[in-house]
Amino acid sequence: MPLTLLLIIITVIISVIAFYSPKVMNDLIFYPPAIAQHNQYYRFISYGFLHADLSHLFFNMYAFYLFGGILEKVFILLFPGQGKLFFVLLYFLSLIASVIPDYFKHKNNQYYRSLGASGAVSAVVFAYIMVDPMQGIGLLFIPIYIPGFLFGILFLIISYFLGKKGGSSINHGAHIWGALFGVVFMIVAVKMFSSYPLLDQFIEKVKGLNLKNLFTTP
Asked: Residue 218 domain-assigned?
């Protein structure tokens, strides 16, 4: 079974259980004071298997399904014999990396909680963009696509300003840190464990951007 599908199944099961069990939700959610005061470090990962509601769960898992399945195959090619290991490392380390800033900012804030796989999904999407920056990416139900690297830049800018604006329950900071971690992970992992010229290929593909064909439709 592909690891992408396995992670989706596990996430759906745990999320649905938590919908009906406040205890499961409270025990697994990212709650910085519980980590700082009671050493519950597992929360750096367990929160990623929880979601606020069905729509939150659907959008995260749908995006993960689209990009995770492809990236998993890419990893198998980039890291022969270790592809699945690197894929798991990307996913779980990005869960941790995407909330570390929140941990230090809110470790004494008893009112702060966070949940969802958005940080890890962002890491997967941006790791894929590093491999195929010209692949068209768009928003769900909007049949207009732009090159992945441009989508990534817009995503980071919009997430930054929405995070600064506040007033939303969405953790935009986790999206940003997860995305950046995905990029760094790809660069470092490929540099150390693969012969593929990732950055050179990325630059060459971006150079081939044709502004006349900037927007594409399916």
From this structure: no
